[in-house]
Amino acid sequence: MRLLFWLGLVILVILALKKKIQPPATGSGNPEQPLEPGNAGSQHAGSAETMVCCAHCQIYLPASEAVQRAGQVYCSQEHADLA
Ligand SMILES: [Zn+2]
Question: Can you tell me the distance from the alpha carbon of 25 to that of 29, in angstroms, rounded to the nearest whole number?
Answer without folding.
Answer: 7
